[in-house]
Amino acid sequence: MPIGFVALPVGIAGPLVLDGRTYYVPMATTEGCLVASTNRGCKAIGESGGAQSVVLRDGMTRAPAVRFGTAARAAELKFFLEDPANFDTLAIVFNRSSRFGRLQGIKCSLAGRNLYMRFSCSTGDAMGMNMVSKGVQNVLDYLQTDFSDMDVISISGNFCSDKKPAAVNWIEGRGKSVVCEAIIKEEVVKKVLKTSVSALVELNMIKNLAGSAVAGALGGFNAHASNIVSAVFIATGQDPAQNVESSHCITMMEAVNDGKDLHISVTMPSIEVGTVGGGTQLASQSACLDLLGVKGASLESPGSNARLLATIVAGSVLAGELSLMSALAAGQLVRSHMKYNRSSRDMTKAAAS
Ligand code: ADP
């Protein structure tokens, strides 16, 4: 029963110089300071020659839960699924679901007589949840012939793991796993970020690494990756609930070039994005994807638009980390929030006028 839309302010941060190209990154957020801060991070990256990224892995996962009469029988299916000799047959069955879904592997885990099978597949430019679920259903139907005593409990058994914090995504990855890095010059740290390389390195160690360890963090070794991830997700029509695992990020900062410059990196193992399907088709969201040059399906190389979007998310997180950490190091955080978040301007009216 759709009744309308909820309007959100959208700003752009940029230019973000990433892998030799420039992007203006749309961010939908009610936190005014966030866009300004990410923009400052982009400036520091740009003035230092840009950031570089690598997609380490690309595969969406779904893990059904099935039950047998005994644990021994559940183990039999585990060995069958993990036997390389059976992969080709399973892939043919799985891949029938879509032109784009291609089985990459199956990882199994037991809890007594319950078996959890984590299927991973490439999904072209789609985020891929529908695609992987259809492929998994094909395999479950196929398995029922030889394992007729298999009781399918649920197509999702939480070992996937979708929209919940889970070590499996942090360690194995889900969606796109991306690393993004930049070397920020000493003078840029001083001039644009108003702090020093040594202050940033120390703060990163005490806050993002030791502080998160003290908190028992799971994938949360960063300052505010989820701020940027959610804002870009909402602007570009991604599923905002997947912000949970998409924001897993470890931020590293080290002094390089004889201690003068700053090497910063963000490693994000489970960025779940797509440029087709879901909310990406809506007019405003599609316009935001277009702004980034990643709208819709890539005809030449299916999947390259979605992978590029994932690198832009990581590049924007890098900018956000750089700026917030600098504000904290310089003790500016509260002041800037008072300035940018206490605006009396009504953004919905500003957008309409
Ligand atoms: P999701 O799996 O992310 O939930 P949907 O199933 O809603 O996505 O959307 C994917 C649909 O888009 C599929 O029907 C697929 O065949 C189609 N499609 C067209 N081009 C592409 C592409 N380049 N990559 C992935 N899917 C594509």
Automatic annotation (TrEMBL):
Keyword annotations for this protein, in alphabetical order, are:
Endoplasmic reticulum, Isoprene biosynthesis, Membrane, NADP, Oxidoreductase
Q: In which pathway does it act?
A: Metabolic intermediate biosynthesis; (R)-mevalonate biosynthesis; (R)-mevalonate from acetyl-CoA: step 3/3
Q: What is this protein called?
A: 3-hydroxy-3-methylglutaryl coenzyme A reductase
Give the UniProt record's GO annotations in the biological process aspect.
coenzyme A metabolic process; isoprenoid biosynthetic process; sterol biosynthetic process
Role according to the record: Catalyzes the synthesis of mevalonate. The specific precursor of all isoprenoid compounds present in plants.
**Main subcellular localisation:** endoplasmic reticulum
A GO term for molecular function: hydroxymethylglutaryl-CoA reductase (NADPH) activity
- Major enzyme class: oxidoreductase
**SUPFAM superfamilies named in the record:** NAD-binding domain of HMG-CoA reductase, Substrate-binding domain of HMG-CoA reductase
Native species of this protein?
A: Asparagus officinalis (Garden asparagus)
* PROSITE patterns referenced in this protein's UniProt entry, alphabetically: HMG_COA_REDUCTASE_1, HMG_COA_REDUCTASE_2, HMG_COA_REDUCTASE_3, HMG_COA_REDUCTASE_4
Extract the Pfam families matched here.
HMG-CoA_red (PF00368)
Q: Which reaction does it catalyse?
A: (R)-mevalonate + 2 NADP(+) + CoA = (3S)-3-hydroxy-3-methylglutaryl-CoA + 2 NADPH + 2 H(+)
Presence of keyword Oxidoreductase: yes
| Known EC number | 1.1.1.34
Annotated membrane topology is: Multi-pass membrane protein
Instruction: Write out the GO cellular component annotations.
Output: endoplasmic reticulum membrane; peroxisomal membrane
- State the compartments where it is located: Endoplasmic reticulum membrane
Family affiliation = Belongs to the HMG-CoA reductase family.
* Top-level taxon in the UniProt lineage: Eukaryota
